[in-house]
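FAQ: What does a multi-protein file look like?

Like this. Sequence, then tokens, then the next protein.
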Amino acid sequence: MKIGILTSGGDCPGLNAVIRGAVLKGVISHDAEFVGFRWGWRGVVERDIMPITRHDVRGLSKQGGTILGSSRTNPFEGEQGGPENIRRMLDEEGIDAIVAIGGEGTLTAARRLWDEGGIPVIGVPKTIDNDLAATDYSFGFDTAVEIATEAIDRLRTTAESHNRAIVLEVMGRHVGWIALHSGMAGGAHAILIPEQPMGIDEICEYVESVRDRGRAPLIVVAEGFKLDTMEEAHSHLGLDAFNRPRLGGIAEKLAPLIEERTGIESRHTVLGHIQRGGAPSAYDRVLATRLGMAAVDAAFDRAWGSMVTLRGTDIARVSIADATGGLNVVPQSRYDEARILFG
């Protein structure tokens, strides 16, 4: 069997570990052949293909980013896009299956290609947001939380030095897992997430409570958080290739409101792509490797339209339709648990 691998959407720590796990399992256990599509779905549409051998993945699990490159290309758009053109390309290149490593947008495209065109595809969940409902955790999340936690630790010292309030913005389009975990780990004085809109008065109450105890307030906010007066998450960066708003900037909006209402000098910091970069954590290397190995087994079982997933500590399979049919939101009980620590 000849398997094509792609990494699509936002990059994330652990992508290379998935590639390595897949190739090693395929070569050792199944005598498979591998190629990579460069730049995600763009490589599929434009037939930009490179061979991947066992030698090519040597020592790859600790390397951040992706050796294949990534993009947010929609495989249904353009003259060469769509199931018919992709099927023709696969047949001409002798490629029997696609392993698509990506998040919500990538896997939604993979599901459509299987449903509408019978393209043989296996999904691997990739999202630092940890927002896919069909997996308990996705690789990249642990690393992103570690990076955000370190940022909180560093910001705390500079905040205390100047007696300022600091608002740290982390990623989280629809869900607040990174904010919740890093905020709890770093001892944030409030954690603001998309699932829990909040008024500016309540936020300022937390800030003033911290000040009254002689501390410098530190707030963690997910990029998708909305004040209770906002209908949509803050966005001023246009749309991505899947017509979704490119979020970012809510911390910059909150900091001056806090300063105006409390009189506390306030600053904001946006971590942005720092959360995506660098070497993956040990946990993410192991999880990514296991998912890559399981994806190859799924391909040889011809479990097309499925996604490999983590359930507890076991690797399982679910349909991509189930994986993209809902979000892994922060439950109320988890937020209430963290909220005890606010202020």
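And here is the next protein:
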Amino acid sequence: MSSANSRHPLAPAELWQSLTWDRGKELSDHARFTIEYGVKVFFADPRSPWQRGTNENTNGLLRQYFPKGTDLSRWSEHEIQAVARTLNHRPRKTLGWKTPAETLNEYLKSVRQPGVATTG
């Protein structure tokens, strides 16, 4: 991690406002993450998967490709990226049957639209 200014160049600031993490020990360094990236971290309550609906749904989709306990080091970056592309282009009921890629592109277009000047 380097600094709050080193966020992904293609991700607008609107996408970096907060993050909800599970309560796993691997996420114990959340304070440093918040300081370094300026992203607020929230934790779901124990045994409350409904607070992480998108995460739970995505985990289920990923399990179709990588069963629980799979050693991801066996897979090449190319193979993992192929799964990501497949899932990002898979329509979702929660998105009105749009794909995550379509939904993100629509959002990015809307936040990049210049304001309309009014005459008064």
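Q: Is there any per-entry metadata?
A: Some entries carry free-text notes. For the entry above: Residues 1-5 have pLDDT under 50 and may be disordered.
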